[in-house]
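Bench log, entry 3. Co-assembly request; chain sequences pasted below exactly as received.
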Amino acid sequence: MPAPLRVVIVGGGTAGWMCAAALVGAVRPGVCEVRLVESDEIGIVGVGEATLPQIKEFNEYIGVIEADFMRKTNATFKLGIEFVDWGFKGSSYIHPFGVHGKPMGGVPFYQYWTKARQGGRTDDIEDFCLPIVASRLNRFDFPTTDEGGINSTFAYAYHFDANLYAGFLREFSEARGLRRTEGKVIDVTLRAQDGHIAAITLNSGEVIEGDLFIDCSGFRSLLMGKALEVGYEDWTPWLPCDRALAVPCERTGPLTPYTRSTAREAGWQWRIPLQHRTGNGYVYSSRFISDDEAAATLLANLDGAALDDPRPLRFQAGRREKSWHRNCVAVGLASGFLEPLESTSIYLIQVAITNLLKLMPARTIDPALVEEFNRLVDVEYERVRDFLILHYHANTRDDAPLWTYCREMDVPESLRRRMSLFQHRGHIHKYGQGLFAPPSWLSVFVGQGLRPAHYDPLVDNLPYERIVAEMDALRDSVALAARSMSDHAAFVDDYCASPAAVRLREGVAS
Amino acid sequence: MSRPIRSVAVVGRDVSAWLTALALQRAFGRQGVSVTVVELPSALRAVDAVIALPALEGLHRLLGLDESEVLAACSGVYALGQQFANWSRSRPPFVHAYDSQGAALRQIPFLHYWLKARAEGLNVALEDFSLGAAAAKHGRFIVHNDATDSFSKARNGYHLDAQSYVRLLRHKAMAAGAQRVAGTLDRVARTPVGVASVTLNGGTSVAADLFVDASGPDAVLAGRALEVPFESWSSWFPCDRILAASGPRLKPLPAMSRISAFGAGWMGMFPLQDRTPVVAAYDSRRISDEEMARTASVLAGMALGDAVVSPFAAGCRAAPWTGNCVAIGEAAACLEPLDAAPLHMIHLGISHLITLFPVDADNLLEAHPYNEAVLSHARNLRDFQIAHYRLNERLDESFWDGARAAEPPPGLAYKLDLFAARGAVALYEDETFQEENWISILIGHGLIPRGHDPQADAMPREEQIQSFQRMLGFIAAEVREMPSIEAQLELFAPPPSSASF
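Structure output for the full assembly:
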């Protein structure tokens, strides 16, 4: 067997520890030798994190036990995201991890719904989607795997404390032999002949050599940005938010099995329910609001007492021109930033890890692998970008200049065409691979107020009475299934109550 | 106000016209859309065959075509893949089976273990780990069970007699309610953006909201009337003629097509129940039609009758859907009769037209996504075909030297480079052929990656040898139990006692 690949991970946030856990959890011993360098002095950005269902595959792939992980990260379940006031003031819709009805005659359900609406019915599309109805009732249960059954029509993700998740993965990785080094990187040495990274130097004076460096240093992008000087593609014209304030507050009221995103005058506010507290933040554009006003808005819109001062973050929407350059792979914020509107940050970390495992290099890195990695990551970033822009662009709000700007801005051609085809006939092209699938686009299109002018002509092959009868039956079975689920708080309590949540329940201040 | 499509005229001939008409009639006939086939004289000859990928089975199901009825009516034979012979001077033939190769071990694709073992001296071909390839080589039909389904993705395509297939499709389409007028085309009346009507010699005129150009390479509407430019692909496809002929039935019946390269092109044999259609694609500057007919006989090892020759030029229409006219099949993109591509192009056009059947005759926004998808599929299919040419190893033959030297399209060049580096397949959107198909032909043609996934190195040698032996043993045992193609056809698709169409 060839000598192991020496992998050096720089930075220990969510990205760093996910990389580490994957490399020690899923890769056979002897293939690579992994070290992680992080500094306890450098805070991590993770602020209460909402995820996508793919995280479950990641956890299973590396061998994490779900209840254990949830208990240790104050995690709750997530069936989707509620968007409040996005398309227009007073609106609320949920982007669910599931489908709206089942196809009939090979045609998506919503096409029949469109015809019924044109026929005068007033049905809400959300009534046909189990994870949405369950969310509105604060219910949760595990999906089943029986094909065709109503309880198999959804997936779930988690809300968790990203600091604790990083800590959990650290414990997981160290138990499997990962070598962690405390320290700050003070110098990066490049090889003269090809500009590859030869070694990093820590503040302790230690020099760490490696074959492959993974830059998980966050916004600072120590290796990819600073040392290798890979440029940054700016997406601010489409995604104007450039700052955020994050603050936790007391947990009050029912435990929602969904994230909430509320559009505000100059951006949007997140609400992420954890077991012991609720994470909040205001993502805003500094062009449209001052930091003080933003802080005031955030603090005035918490559903419990603030547990800290708001913590500021600055960022620039966009991405590094390359995610893998020479012998350095950037993962997480070091590779780009897309606001957490659709909980894609951890997903994009996962995409990088999955593709790295698939294209695992030998000590001498074949440039073809680098190119393919970048191609695959490009596709994902651009799709997520389009999907995010849709939320801003498709609005009819006239109460604040940010929303007028976003409505009137030029959007990428790929998005413009998707929108016009949906508005024309409800057509949503399904990507061969990657995010997001048609049900996601549907929920946002409809939720933001777009309606198809026509439905798919194949719909006319079913008699109208039959369509209406199917809809009634489906709505009833969704409602029944949702009501049969457990209360989300009770489910979490029973399945994976964290020590902090137990203390909270027992009335002890944490 | 929008104007729904009430009438469609399918102008053309043969499989593309009648498969489209049947599909449109079944999809939209019930709601009052009238489908009229303006049938131009057939270009098919008695010798012609239709070569189908496994995907056709799904289309047939949607169209209510029963597999056993189709096979019986069209003298049809299952095809588990295509064998490529003589594409290299030194390499034995290989089978591109419609199947995967081996099983992933510890979540690392099988190919990497095979590459590693090969570098260590293993002398077993990749295709020997493919159930579909093994069955094809033994003339067997795969009866699926849980074990085969968890190990392999094997599926089968078909060889069908072309004229019988068209008769069957015509009968089914008309029984479903499609109308037919037949004749030769006199003129096409245009609107500013499309077609208003077509008129046949003799005066019959057909107007419609939507026209389908299913006239084959002539593209009488899209090409001649609307003058949509043709993008030539001839720099990658040196053959400019296709010869079709037919020989006696092969015994026992092979379970695959056989594609053999020769000095000036390639020749395919596509066994049917009662005869063996033969097709040769060649460069007429290097071999005359007469010589080709003689050569085909020699290559096929049988007497061939009724050889007919037609011109060929690979390429596509810049916008297959222009105005109110949708080109399907060869009117949209012409591909060599290799890899079952021509029928699949028809299938793709039909699927996309049904998905994007216009909702408003005055606002045909569907044209753009149709063109994008159909052309992107066509280019990926084209690249799969070019890979055969590019990777040939018939050294010192100018036809093949030229094919090897032709710079491939960028998407294919990228694919070949990545595969050569590491055995990874770059899959794009709109691929007909999946990872296992690409692996099969790339390895088959001798593109052996210089590296493999280092994670495969973590498996101890003994364990790997045992896994390989288990797979080979499984395949051998399964193949022994499989019925022969003949036995399966006899059971499942006995020829009708008399022609019913």
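DSSP finds 16 helices and 22 strands in chain B. The two ends of chain B are 44 Å apart (CA to CA).
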